[in-house]
Amino acid sequence: IIAKGVIDPIGTPIQNHSENLFSTGFFGGYQTMDALGSVMLGGIITASLIQKGWHNKLDQRRVASIAILVAGLGLALVYGGLLYLGSTSSSILTAELSRTQLTISIVELILGNIGKVILGICVAFACLTTSVGLTATVGDFYANLTDNKINYKWIVTFTCFVCAFIANIGVDAIVTIATPLLIAIYPLTIILIILNLSNTSVSITRASVIGALSVSIFDGLNAAGITFPAVWRIIETLPFANEGFAWILPTLIGGTIGLLIDLIHNISKTKKHKAIKSV
Questions:
Q1: Over the stretch 181-192, which tens digit does the pLDDT of each residue have?
Q2: What percentage of residues in the chain have a pLDDT greater than 70?
Q3: Contact predicate 96/20, CB 8 Å
Q4: Where would I find the H helices in the chain?
């Protein structure tokens, strides 16, 4: 689909006068749930590497890095290609179309009815790989949480039935329901990923998450139509609030507090050690 759309564009990109394009694209990316999925799927991938015989941490990182490069390149090609297809359709299709209608219309203009069949197959396989991994994660989590009192197979079966029901309410309805929750928890996920990569302490991580949550929870409630005017007036004064990133400063403040806690703890620990040593 992308190759045909690049070789034979359906239209010419027109100038876009929209504001806050970066934040719009950034928050739109929340809907893919890639970061949320990666946090959970990471455990499955690590367990798979161990089962395949890569017990050494360096070997695990080497193999995982290769997989990351392949996956990253694939995502870049797909999302970059869809970005290009969207730009070429800007002079043909109207902004009133829903996300689903827009995608289907673009594909139909590029390849006709056969394009819609190909798109359906692509989406089915893309969703299948994610749903299998996440369903397995849910089954493992609740089986361990209940000490296997609730059977893994029953949990997985129940999850599949619930997801099948939710999937049929439509993409736009799912996006509407999910958006407030994603706005509330996505900053926490981003922070956890960054801090885990930098191997920071529990104190810094915990304080940073609390700082982000102090703002993101109200962002999520606001997206759901539940507003707290007094709190919102304070949030609007924070840096990057207009772009939707008001949680950045509280996160940095929280991380700094966590760092100070660590420093005080280390100083106290050092003094105590010296006192014991002198005795």
A1: 888 899 998 998
A2: 97
A3: no
A4: 2-7, 21-28, 34-51, 57-88, 99-111, 113-145, 152-167, 171-197, 202-223, 229-235, 248-278
